[in-house]
What we know:
Layout: E1 5-7, H1 13-23, H2 25-41, H3 46-63, H4 65-78, H5 82-89, H6 91-98, E2 107-111, E3 119-127, E4 134-140, E5 146-152, E6 159-162, E7 166-172, H7 186-196, H8 200-208, E8 216-222, E9 226-232, E10 235-239, E11 246-249, H9 256-259, H10 264-267, H11 270-280, H12 282-285, H13 290-296, E12 321-330, E13 335-340, E14 352-353
Region (Disordered): 1-20
Amino acid sequence: xxxxxxxxxxxxxxxxxxxxxxxxxxxxxxxxxxxxxxxxxxxxxxxxxxxxxxxxxxxxxxxxxxxxxxxxxxxxxxxxxxxxxxxxxxxxxxxxxxxxxxxxxxxxxxxxxxxxxxxxxxxxxxxxxxxxxxxxxxxxxxxxxxxxxxxxxxxxxxxxxxxxxxxxxxxxxxxxxxxxxxxxxxxxxxxxxxxxxxxxxxxxxxxxxxxxxxxxxxxxxxxxxxxxxxxxxxxxxxxxxxxxxxxxxxxxxxxxxxxxxxxxxxxxxxxxxxxxxxxxxxxxxxxxxxxxxxxxxxxxxxxxxxxxxxxxxxxxxxxxxxxxxxxxxxxxxxxxxxxxxxxxxxxxxxxxxx
Length: 354
């Protein structure tokens, strides 16, 4: 089992978006429908969701006009309104506005060894009814920079890597400063980092330039540096690796100042269990073999930390979580290795190199 892939032939934002929307029309419509169901079950009013989508598009156009053009192009190709594609890109912000809470989510490990490239792996957990949303997308800029991203149909980026030697991992956070006044979607921040940054410092500057309404952490990795950039309406913090080169992140803030406003961990403290699991498996997570690193993430609830999640089908869809992907970055090659599903399904043969 592998994720679908798409390679853009266009380099201009609107044309690239229109090609993407045209070729992936069915997947984008399905993803939008899935999020519409999720918002409804979580308590979102459809009319208000449209208002939030329009506001996210306005904020995006002011902060990154080219990305708003690309969203408009996707909408034109997919036969949708631009606000509908903006809703997909702003799903983190809309869920924060609805005040939706869940206890699944992602775990990330980055290790900078004394010799050799960074060793990374993350699980990506999301709602099981959206398991058909992910895809792998490659596009090129006029500058020659190539970006490869694991994202969702209609979303401009998520986890990814560029030929400028920079990659990103992605985890959701929750903070008491999160607000219903929609800001720049955090997925667009990840996109601009992949498109424009070549260093941790440049990535942090991009994050600081955006006015956001929801929280997330984007862990940025280059061949010699790494940092988790924690983003919230209350501010941005940059968390470096420890002296041993180890940088771990789950779904709670590590910065002392931002942690004072922690929401996710106070409501769903399983994030601390997952962090303790990662900390106890640093030796395996530090190894050169991607397969071994993924297997080090293997841990199931209720007997252990739920790093590898499986949905409880007795729950409503907004409370059903599944590890939909396991992903590592290959910085020297400018590629990702992607496994469809959780660590418990990993074998040497299940990795998709993209």
